[in-house]
Amino acid sequence: MSIKDRIKEMTPNQINKIILDNLEIYSNEWGNSSAIHNKNNDYSFFERFVRTKKRILEIGSGVGFSTLKLIQMGHHVVSIEDNPFCLEKTFEKVSSASYKIEKVVRGSLNVNNTSYSVIYSKVQNELKDNNLLIEGNVIDDNELLEWLRSLEKFDAVVCWLIATHPISEIRYGYQDFQQNIYKTELLTKLLKDSSDYLDLNGYFHIVERTHYPRSEEEKELLINSYLKIVDLSKFEILDCEFRKMVGGDFQGGVRLEITNISGNDPGKIEHAFISLLLRKVITD
Length: 284
Ligand SMILES: C[S@@+](CC[C@H](N)C(=O)[O-])C[C@H]1O[C@@H](n2cnc3c(N)ncnc32)[C@H](O)[C@@H]1O
Description:
By secondary structure, this protein is α/β, with parallel strands linked by helices. The chain has helices at residues 3-8, 12-39, 42-48, 65-72, 84-96, 142-150, 168-172, 179-192, 216-227; strands at residues 55-59, 76-81, 102-104, 107-111, 116-120, 132-135, 154-160, 198-211, 235-244, 271-280. The longest helix has 28 residues, at 12-39. Bound molecules: S-adenosylmethionine.
């Protein structure tokens, strides 16, 4: 039975529990996947693209390997995370490495028998030289978006490996939830609204999962599938690179959903990261 049908028969308490359980499972699975990326120095590879940029807005901290890497490398970070379990794990990871980060918890679940939403309180934190980890959602959290607009613009936005927990299916009302559709919608929105928080000449760095191209033609096709969402009158492409992924799909990790344009059996493709570095050339 699908999750949508299951919640129709449940009490609000049971729905709350099932949502929290799913959020926690996702944070554990992502913890396993990202520990492998961290061991393989993938976060060092990602960070190098924004090395020259001081003030960074991170979309999705996950369990904190990416946030910690950015802070360790001397960036000043504001990180937005939607999943409260991921938020807590990030806070613990950064704090136990003896770096300072302020955690802002703002969400409360609002459930009914067909969907759920999260009600967020106002963000009132001041931003000076402090790193901030904020519970929030860059899609539908208007309080957060208003607060972001009130700040001095960032030097870079990083959107590394964005994805969400499968329970999002009932949050956003998808018929048939697919990570690829979710990610494309999220990135499209962020790029469209980027003048609200990204400075002129600022970098927008996207890292996604894909498969390793085996020919120049396949490479072009993969790059173009991402560039479709970029308004090239507002951004210039500075760099695009592929890096083979160690780990990929494994039991206990987050399921990898990638667009396979190779025509090969999914079991035979080599997983990879695609890094796309954009520079903001026009602000609205
Ligand atoms: C796969 S993890 C990647 C985390 C981190 N960037 C990294 O590279 O390790 C993606 C994170 O983005 C968060 N996320 C997804 N959609 C979001 C949204 N709309 N607003 C804020 N965070 C979101 C998820 O909860 C998840 O923790």
